[in-house]
């Protein structure tokens, strides 16, 4: 049981459930985490907005306003924009020592309103002279393209205040409920070095169990649920970027049918990908190349028997559900 303070949604103690991918810097992992968040909140019947930003973009903003050494102070302040308002954010920036010229350069960002396409166009102009900023924009565009999610929103003031994030930043809010974020996370490529394990990429999210409970309670969503848990049943081999895009759509179909599926995050050698599936005891591996994408008939390997055959995904789904 969490010990709660007097402010709604604020906890002195709390429970969380994490999902992390360690050891890969592939942006496919960000896409997978977005799909996990979509799936979880869809099953819980909570209407959410998945907000995303990129730490490289925030670093680029600090750079172009001439305050690259104050990235932490700037991000901590602008992360409070929707809570304390523009004037108090500017006041906090002044108190932290940001000069008036830099604060004025920051204003167009803080007041900007627009859809994702408009925001990316705005950022490309603003960060034209920042290499790290442009890299952040490229990463965001890639994630938006592959995620293909109606829940995903670009929020250029999202910072989450934690300075160990190095790439994507996530925050999930429940629509129609006055409470803080119910899930958050991001990429932390340098964090493991603190614990003596340098050069290991990571990205992860944390579900705030207490806040999710409060949201469900307020919306009257509790009911008896028969939730069955199992490991991954189908893994898609990663042959390249075009195949990645194709496979992600097929994976979504499997997950919507209640079949746990994943895509190997890196374009590694086949031997390594099959060894991974074998080690995780994944019973089926699907291989999709150009021929399979054209025909819609996939090559499927039964990892238990070693048998390899060709079938349509719909037929595989019926067998797995059965």
Description:
With about 325 residues, the chain is α/β, with parallel strands linked by helices. The protein folds into 2 domains: about 15-220, 2-Layer Sandwich (BirA Bifunctional Protein, domain 2); about 235-320, Rossmann fold (3-Layer(aba) Sandwich), CATH 3.40.50. It has helices spanning about 30-45, 55-65, 70-80, 80-85, 85-95, 100-110, 115-125, 130-145, 210-220, 240-255, 270-280, 290-295, 315-320, and strands at about 15-20, 50-55, 150-155, 170-175, 185, 200-210, 235, 260-265, 285, 295-300, 310. It has a 6-stranded mixed beta sheet with strand order 1-6-5-4-2-3. The protein has a 5-stranded mixed beta sheet with strand order 8-7-9-10-11. β4 (about 170-175) and β5 (about 185) form a beta hairpin. The longest helix has 17 residues, at about 130-145. Residues about 1-5 have low confidence and may be disordered.
């Amino acid at each position: 049981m969490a010990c709660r303070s007097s402010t709604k949604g604020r906890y002195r103690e709390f429970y969380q459930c994490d999902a992390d991918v360690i050891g890969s810097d592939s942006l496919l992992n960000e896409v997978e985490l977005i799909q996990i968040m979509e799936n979880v909140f869809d099953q819980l019947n909570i209407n959410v907005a998945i907000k995303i930003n990129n730490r490289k973009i925030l670093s680029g903003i600090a750079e172009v306003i001439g305050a690259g050494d104050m990235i932490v102070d700037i991000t901590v302040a602008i992360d409070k924009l929707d809570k304390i308002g523009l004037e108090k954010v500017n006041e906090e920036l002044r108190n932290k020592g940001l000069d008036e010229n830099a604060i004025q350069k920051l204003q167009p960002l803080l007041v900007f309103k627009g859809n994702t396409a408009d925001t990316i166009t705005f950022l490309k102009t603003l960060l034209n002279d920042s290499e790290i900023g442009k890299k952040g924009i490229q990463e965001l565009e890639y994630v938006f393209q592959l995620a293909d999610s109606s829940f995903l929103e670009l929020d250029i003031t999202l910072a989450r205040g934690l300075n160990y994030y190095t790439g994507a930043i996530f925050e999930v809010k429940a629509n129609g409920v006055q409470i803080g974020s119910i899930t958050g996370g991001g990429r932390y490529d340098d964090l493991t070095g603190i614990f003596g394990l340098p050069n290991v990429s990571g990205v992860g999210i944390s579900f705030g169990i207490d806040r999710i409970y409060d949201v469900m309670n307020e919306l009257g969503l509790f009911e008896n649920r028969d939730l069955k848990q199992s490991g991954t049943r189908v893994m898609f081999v990663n042959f390249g970027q075009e195949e990645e895009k194709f496979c992600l759509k097929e994976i979504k179909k499997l997950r919507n049918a209640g079949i746990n599926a994943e895509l190997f995050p890196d374009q590694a050698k086949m031997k390594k990908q099959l060894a991974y599936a074998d080690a995780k005891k994944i019973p089926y591996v699907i291989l999709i190349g150009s021929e399979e994408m054209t025909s819609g008939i996939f090559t499927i390997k039964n990892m238990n028997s070693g048998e390899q055959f060709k079938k349509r995904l719909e037929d595989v789904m019926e067998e797995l559900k059965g």
